[in-house]
Every structure is written in structure tokens, then in C-alpha cells.
Amino acid sequence: MRKEKVDVLVIGGGAAGLAAAIESANHGVKTILLERERKTGGVLNQCIHNGFGLHVFKQELTGPEFMELLWEELSKTSAIVKSDSTVLKIAPESKEVTVLSREGVVIYQVKSLIVSTGARERSLNNLGIPGARVAGVFTAGVVQKMVNIYNRLPGHNVLIVGSGDIGLIMARRLKIEGMNVVGVVEIMPEPGGLIRNVVQCLEDFDIPLWLSHTVTEIHGTGRLEGVTVAKVDGELKPILGTEKFLKVDTLVTSVGLIPQNGLIENFVEMDPINRGPVIDDLMRTSVEWIFAAGNNVAVHDLVDFVYEEGKIAGKYAALYALGEKLPGVKYNFKRGNNVGVMLPHRVTGEIPFKMYIRSKKILKSCEVKFNGKRFRIFNWKIRPSEMLDLHLNKFDAFSETTNVEVNELE
Amino acid sequence: MKIYIIGAGISGSLIARELSKYEVEVHLIEKNPDVGWGVTKANSAIIHGGYDDPPGTVRAQFSSIGNKMYDQLSKELDFDFKRIGSYVVAFNENEVLYLKELKERGRKNGVTNLEIVDVKELKTKEPNINENAIAALWCPDAGITEPWEVAIAAIENARKNGLILHLSEKVVDIVVEKGKVKRLVTNKGEYKADIVINAAGLFADEIARMAGAEGFKIYPRKGEYILLDKKLNGLVNSVIFPTPTKTSKGVLVLPTVDGGILIGPNAVDLPVEEKSNLSTTKEGLTEIYGRAKHLVPGIDLSYTIKTFSGLRPENNRKDFIIGATKIWGFINVAGIRSPGLTAAPAFAKYIVEKIFPENLKVNLVKKKEFNPYRKRIPNMSYFNLEKWDKLVKKDPKYGKLVCFCNNVTEGEIVEAIKRGARTVDGVKFRTRASFGRCQGGFCGLKIIEILARELGISVEEVKQNYRNSWIIDGKVRI
Ligand SMILES: Cc1cc2nc3c(=O)[nH]c(=O)nc-3n(C[C@H](O)[C@H](O)[C@H](O)COP(=O)(O)OP(=O)(O)OC[C@H]3O[C@@H](n4cnc5c(N)ncnc54)[C@H](O)[C@@H]3O)c2cc1C
Ligand SMILES: Cc1cc2nc3c(=O)[nH]c(=O)nc-3n(C[C@H](O)[C@H](O)[C@H](O)COP(=O)(O)OP(=O)(O)OC[C@H]3O[C@@H](n4cnc5c(N)ncnc54)[C@H](O)[C@@H]3O)c2cc1C
């Protein structure tokens, strides 16, 4: 087994990891980025639709285009990229990171670490929907990869489950590629994705959207032969007598992303709501030499936010590796009324920062308050599926425990 | 002499391996494209202590002996077997009386190391048990394994020793002349056969009817399960049973060999036509959740990985039907319900060592060169990293992870295909790739690619499992 010393090790080469490696290397420290797939880029590789980069590059790019800009930036630095390299474990006491690649097992002795391992898709099996176990049930990301990277189709007649942006985008994609898209079912009374996507992906392509509906049973032997869908009541329970059978050979599910934190969750303080590490404005976890950025911290809507987090993590991980003393935490945030996903959890009060919040409910309009003091009004409909982002550069409303709330405005 | 075994479940595969120790031509015929996909694929995976089967039954005769054989068997065949012990938990005085009855039953079956423990002792070992438990029956001999792996391992080893395996071949008739087995007819051909062993699981009644042996009916009794994530590892450390009822051992909570938690099964009788109905139901899943949660309140369905179900091959005698029949050369190994997994090594030996010489007057000669050992596919959880590093240096494919949830490399998948995997499920059952929390989200397409490459077929031809389980339809654009 080979051992190697490195200042900053970045785990995961998606948008967050690439940005982190760029920034870290730009601070003049030895930086290695490890990616378990053949290519870096993460989910950007398969997102051939546009809608990336509006904030940071001020242009509307596809995923691969966004990725190539990052590669270009990275190639100008001294950062070393190792792909087909998977981190197996992190030893928190010795700061050793064990990596498997075709070269063998390598142990990196690190000064600081950036975890940017992204999220995985929740599978239909994880939901425990009863019925047959058949071929032909895929997550949206798998079908996206199949169509956009492998150039293959999953079947003939397809139903999409879940109306998040990924589900909507895949409905359109499969229709364009010649599949019969029977419809999209969504258990909630409102679509999960952006209205823009509902219009551009479904309405413009005559694909029906069934709100307050869910799949209650899977049928078939061998390959999928059909599914039963039913209307649900206010408690999201299927209503007896509303079942109907849809003859489809393919089911594509888009039922949520889950941050991947298997490497750190046993020794880093975790937030059960974000399903990611507790984080501060320097993207530092509860372990001072471990930083995190991207969809593993919390699932983000926009790659731009992920990119920005990566840059912050890269900077402070590099400074830490250089032996600089980083500021301590001064203010903590506590979830109050209606606050779901929220980050960061605490800040140093030394630098301006961005706070991201998801409302727990759909609100007609709302105000965000810190310690009871109104900070901002959102004069439009707020949904859990859209992150609110707040720019903060004054700290006078904060205290050691700062209460954050999102209140509906009448 | 030609021996044909029908069915490559745990029964057929262990009988095949036992017979491969002797100088005789042995064939194993399985209608599925792979081994171990019948009842053996979906069950509780427990090597039972052997105390609970009614004394005097064939089940009781074989299960405590079978249990003891697992240590040696798992060493020879290199499969996972962990003797983690089991508790039957009582919640009231009536149930404690029943524990005493079980203990007595165990004594009659030759299981003498059972112990009734108080709640304090139970809690030190199983802190997550329901507060209201008052006592438990401890059985140190109970274990867990991976049933399909036992079948796979036994067949790999038997083939090394001469077994001829026929897959995707279905027995459709058995020709009997003058009260003796003569030939076996399959969808692919006809074979001269001297001895036929019927180990056809749920379909053993149909096979017996083909031979004209005495009639019995097998009907399916469904048991549903929910598999929970490794994150819950340690929630229970041994097999946890409730106090049984007249009809079933009840819903259990137990660890799987690779660290997950399994809850189930319920028991629902299905009509005879439904021997392929493996769907799970809302009612069933709700029932097992409720019962499991009563035993271990920490059960949390948000950690669900998947649900599945198995079918018990029941018959009205409620016992195994093992032995020679009025048709010379036709042997039944039928009605192998629970604890079939536990009992199989014992009855496999019994058939070869007792039925052959005593009932058939056939004395087989032992092979001199029988090799009892089979090695598992290399797997990171059994190698230390130094050793794994050396393996990668020999074959870099062992350095390319494919399944991230269960740490399975390309090397393991290629090796599984070399050993007989032809489908995604074939790879999955041999390596645990795509068995984990993401259920193939990251690795599914890669496994398809590797299968296509290694087998020299197109990705469209790769199947999930059975003939009609295609996965990819065709090219997007040509
Ligand atoms: C289908 C889809 C559509 C989207 N559409 C848009 C859009 O239109 N506009 C927009 O702005 N945003 C969009 N997003 C969101 C945006 O793309 C993501 O938030 C962002 O790309 C996530 O980047 P990441 O680096 O956090 O994660 P990922 O891209 O998931 O990268 C994580 C990387 O870490 C690697 N990794 C994980 N574990 C290990 C390990 N142990 N060892 C080594 N490597 C490891 C993974 O292989 C992966 O490459 C979309 C996302 C998806 C999934
Ligand atoms: C819910 C449940 C829980 C259980 N729990 C346990 C437990 O914890 N411990 C325990 O010891 N036991 C348990 N069992 C019992 C155990 O699983 C079975 O006894 C055992 O798997 C039966 O194996 P088998 O080889 O007899 O049958 P199978 O595995 O069904 O094998 C029979 C094979 O015959 C093949 N076949 C059928 N017809 C034909 C034909 N015409 N031509 C060719 N091939 C044919 C089938 O395809 C199949 O592969 C449980 C069973 C169930 C269902």
C-alpha cells in the first residue's frame, strides 16, 4: 500500500469539488481531487438541458458546458485530478484517507479535507410500494444517463412518478426521443418543479400531469406490465375506488435526492433535516479540518450555489492547511416557524455570507425573520421545492442563538 | 447408473454436492436461468436452533442435525454463516409458560442448551427490545446465512467434482415402466434416467404426479419482508422472535449477514394457481411493520431498502415428504417448508447414505479425489486492505469500484460471470452489487455493460433475470 502526503484532499469531482479544488490550488497548496467515476463533473455530465450558470457565468449553459468551464479553470491550476478513485474511509484521529483505484490501495495523509460527494437518488424500492419486483423501473437519473450518455431507450410506454425538475425534464426528453409518455403523477397538490418546467416540459408537449395521485401497485412478471395509480386524500393516503390501471412497460421515478455522507456521518455532527453535516459560513464541519460543499451538505436547486460553496470550502481548507488560524463561530441559528432545510447552521460574523432556506409549506408570500426582526419579504408564492437565498452582510440582528422563521403574510 | 435431480434450490444443490462425492453420473436440472431462484431466494435466512419443530416429525429429525452441520459446511464452501443466537420474547406470564414448553420441546429434539433468561439479561444483549418484554428463550445455536449463496457454492463445488448442470431446462414428464423410472423428458430433450430425485420446491407435487408417485398437494403460503438499511446495524444483534402462535413463528426482526436489518414474514395462504405470485401487498407490509415495531420500537421505515416476498411450499401433512416411493428410483424431497434451509445438509446426507443403500439397495462408491473446498469470490469485507492491494496489482479490475453501496469491484463482477452469472440478478446474488441502498442507481447500467462485454452480447440482450425481463429497448437514434 502506498502512502502519500497532501495538503488538501477533495473527495468528489462534481461542480462543488471542481470549484473547491480550483480555489484550494489557487492558494498555493498541494491539492488532489479524487473522483470515483471515469470522468469528473458529477451530475453535470448527464444534464444536457440548459439552465446552468446564470448566476456565476451570467449565461445560460448546459450541464456539460458548465463543466467544461470548470475544467478549463482547473487546468490552469496545479490541482491533481485522479479519477476512477473511490474513497473508502476516513480515519478521523490519524487524518488518513483510504482510496481504492486501479493503482491499488493508497492512503493519503491530509492536512485538510473537502467532502463534496453529492447526492444519490432515492429509488422506488426505498419507498416500499407494494407489488411485483420487475425490470423496467428506473430512477430518472439512470434513464437520463441511459438516454444522454449511453444513447439507449428504456422502453415504449412510460409513466413518470414525481414532478420535481428532474421528472419534468425527463418526461420531455423521453417524448422527444419517441417514447409514449403516458403522464406524470405527483402525490402533492402542487407540482414539485419550477412552473417554467411544467409549462416547457409538459404543457408544450401535451403530457398530462396528475396532481394528488400516486402509484399504489406495480404489476408484471419479468418486465413491468402496468401500474395502478390512485388519487390521494389530504393525508396523502390513496382514496379507495379511484384506482386506475395504466398499461406501461417503463416507470421512471423522481422521488427525491439523498445527500451522501456515509464517509463522515459517524464522526461529524449531522443535521437530520438537511441530511448533511452541520456547517458554518466557512463550509467547515464540526471537525475543524473537514470542510463540505455541494449536494451532500443539502440538496441544492442550482449548480451556481454549489459552485460558490465549493469556492468557499476550497479557500478555507487551503488556509487551514497553510496553518492559518481561522475565526471561531460566533452566532448559531435555530430553526423556527416553517424552516425546513437551512444552511449554514452557524457563522463567524467575520464575512458576508449567503443563507439558504426551504420553507416547509407552500406560502402565498412570506417574511424571513431573525430573532423576531423582519429581514426580508418575498412577495411571491414560496414552495418547499425552491430554495430561498438571502445575502447577509450585517450581523446586528444575530445573537448566540438566533431564531430563524419564515412566516406567511396575509 | 444415471441420477437426475430436479430443482437447484438449497435441497437439490446440497443433494447434488453430496452425490458428487461418489462415482456416479449426476445431473441437476433447473428450469430457471440460474440456481437458487426458487423458494431458496426469499426467506428469513435463519439456521434455526431446531427446538421448535414438533418432536417426532421429519422436520424435527433433520433440523437440529442440519444446524450442527453448518459450521463445517460453511468452512468447506466458504459462505457466510454467523451463529448469532436467537431470542423468543415473552410479554406476559402465558407466554412465559409457552417458552417453558418450547424449552421442553427442544430437549426432546436434542437441543439441550436452551435457556430462559429474564428481561435484565435480555436487555444487556438487546437494549432495543420493547420495554414491556418480561423474559426470553435464548438459543445460542441459531445462525444466519445467505441461502442462495449456499446453493451457488454447493453447485460450484459439485460441478468441480463432476456434476452436470442443466439450466433453463424444464422437466415436463417422467417415463415409468414396470414400476421403475426409465426416462426423463424436458422441454429440450429426453434422457435415460435410473434415479430421479424430486426437489422441485413449490412444484414438487406436479413432478410427483408425472411419475405417478403417491399424491400430495403443495400450496403456496406467502411471507412478506421489508429489508432495512445498514444504518440500522446493531438495532438487534440476534434473531428476535415473538412467542409463536399456532400457525406461525410470527414476525421476526433479525440482522442480515451483511449488516442490514430484515423484518417479516407474515403468513398468507394463496390458491394453488398462484405459485409464482411474489408481489408484496399493502396489507402485508403494514402488518409486518406493526408487529416488528411491537418487538423492536426503533424500527424505522424511512430506512427501507426494498420489500420482497417468498412462498412456502406447504402441504396438508405440515411436514417434509422425504424418501423413496412405490416407483423404484423416484425419490421425493418435497414439502420442504421452513426450516428447510436448516435441515437440507442433514437430509441430503440421509438420502445418499440411507435411502440409496437401504431402500434402493444401491451402494455408491466414494470418489478418491473428491475436493470438498470451494473459494468465494474475493470481497473487500473479507480481505484486509494489504491483501486487497496485492490483488489489485495482479488484476487492476479489483481496483475499479462499480457498486458504491456494497463496495463491489469490476473484478468481482467479471469473476461472477466466469462462474455462471448470465443476468443482472445473477451478478447481484453472487456479488451483492446493486443490493444496497441505491438499488442499482449508480451501478445498474455499468453491470449491464460488463455483462454485455463479457458475454459478447448487446446491452439490449442483457436481462434482469427471466426470459422476458429485458431492460434496455434499443438505440435512441441510429
Ligand atoms: C437531473 C438534474 C437536473 C438539474 N438541473 C439543473 C439546472 O437546470 N440548473 C442548475 O443550476 N442546476 C441543476 N441541477 C443541480 C446541480 O446540477 C447540482 O446541484 C450540482 O451539479 C451538484 O453538484 P455536486 O458537486 O454537489 O454533486 P455531484 O454532481 O453529485 O458530484 C459529486 C461527485 O462526487 C463523487 N463521489 C461521491 N462519493 C465519492 C467517493 N467516496 N470517492 C470519490 N468520489 C466520490 C461522485 O461520483 C460525483 O462525481 C440539476 C441536478 C440534477 C440531478
Ligand atoms: C417466507 C419463508 C421463510 C423461511 N424461513 C426459513 C428460515 O428462516 N430457515 C429455514 O431453515 N428455512 C426457511 N424457509 C424454508 C426454506 O426457504 C425452504 O425450505 C427451502 O428454500 C426450500 O428449498 P428447495 O430447494 O426445496 O426449493 P426451491 O428453492 O424452490 O428449489 C426448487 C427448484 O426447483 C425448480 N423447479 C421446479 N419445477 C421444475 C421443473 N419442472 N423442472 C426443472 N426445475 C424445476 C425451481 O425453479 C426451483 O429452483 C422459509 C421459507 C419461506 C417461504
TrEMBL record, chain A:
Keywords per UniProt: Oxidoreductase
Residues in FAD/NAD(P)-binding domain copies: 7-295
Origin superkingdom: Bacteria
Keyword Magnesium attributed: no
Listed InterPro entries: FAD/NAD-bd_sf, FAD/NAD-binding_dom, Metab_Enz_Cyan_OpOx_G3PDH
SUPFAM superfamilies attached to this UniProt entry: FAD/NAD(P)-binding domain (SSF51905)
PANTHER family per the UniProt record, alphabetical: ANAEROBIC GLYCEROL-3-PHOSPHATE DEHYDROGENASE SUBUNIT B (PTHR42949)
Protein name per the record: FAD-dependent oxidoreductase
From TrEMBL, chain B:
Residues of the signal peptide: none
Domain BFD-like [2Fe-2S]-binding: 401-453
SUPFAM superfamilies listed in its UniProt record: FAD-linked reductases, C-terminal domain, FAD/NAD(P)-binding domain
Lineage top rank: taxon: Bacteria
TM ranges: none
CDD domains to which the protein is assigned, alphabetical: GlpA-like_Fer2_BFD-like
Database matches in InterPro entries: BFD-like_2Fe2S-bd_dom (IPR007419), BFD-like_2Fe2S-bd_dom_sf (IPR041854), FAD-dep_OxRdtase (IPR006076), FAD/NAD-bd_sf (IPR036188), G3P_Oxidase/Oxidoreductase (IPR052745)
Domain FAD dependent oxidoreductase: 3-353
Record's protein name: NAD(P)/FAD-dependent oxidoreductase
Organism of derivation: Thermosipho ferrireducens
Taxon lineage: Bacteria, Thermotogati, Thermotogota, Thermotogae, Thermotogales
